[in-house]
Amino acid sequence: MRTASIAGLVAAAATASLLASPAHAHSAELATFRLGIQLADDGGASQFGQEQFTNNVKFGNSVSAWAGDANKFDPDAVRLNLETNPGDPLIGRDFRIGAQAMDKGSHLGPVQYTPWASAGGGQSDFVTDDNGWDPDEYRLFLDTRAWPSSASLVDFRISVTAVDKGVPGVPAFTPWAGQGGGRSPLALDTNGFDFDGFVLGLEVR
Q1: Is the pLDDT at 3 greater than 70, yes or no?
Q2: What is each CA distance from 87 to 90, 107, 147, 180, in whole angstroms?
Q3: Which of left, alpha, beta for 119 (phi over 0: left; psi -120 to 50: alpha)?
């Protein structure tokens, strides 16, 4: 299935829109942050792998280490972590998030990104390996640039939607950054078993 079609299905499954109009004021209360990813097996009940993080957004572009479940083979569940750094204001920094999948230590898929926060956020294309089937590991990308003077930001959160055989599960959202951020619930596909990839979301307001 084409990635555009998968993204459309994910949008239909979301309970809140991942496309929002730019806000009218920049919030001085938003803190800098880094992003984490963790995977698990057994339908998300056990075999949690090590959580892997990007660098803090203030240090520029970064990429996390590869994350898998405990045995780094066909995970069933994934969650994201929006880890904020209170007291360190997010000022003048635009960002987007991306991810890449890998299978069997070498079969890489392309890096897929959300739109920039200053552009209103949105969804990435489908993140999967080179054959679109049951990747073993994933890593996150955090890209940054100067914030455009014509745009503004009040708050944001991120999401992940597991997809299997072209069918998305329920999107899992982190708390809002303005509320301190934190981990999303575990995202599963519709049968909770060996998802083929996921779609990232960046929701702004």
Answers
A1: no
A2: 9, 41, 20, 11
A3: alpha
Buried b (16+ CB within 10 A) or exposed e, 87-117: eeebeebbbbbbbbbbbeeeeebebbbbbbb
Report the C-alpha dihedral over residues 188, 17, 117, 67, rounded to 10 degrees.
0
pLDDT single digits (tens) 131-140: 999 999 999 9
Say yes or no to pLDDT of 18 above 90: no
- What residue type is 132 in one-letter code? G
Token pair, residue 75, equals 């995970």
How many CB atoms neighbour CB 186 within 10 A? 21
**Tokens standing for 26?**
């920049």
- Answer whether 0.70 is exceeded by the pTM: yes
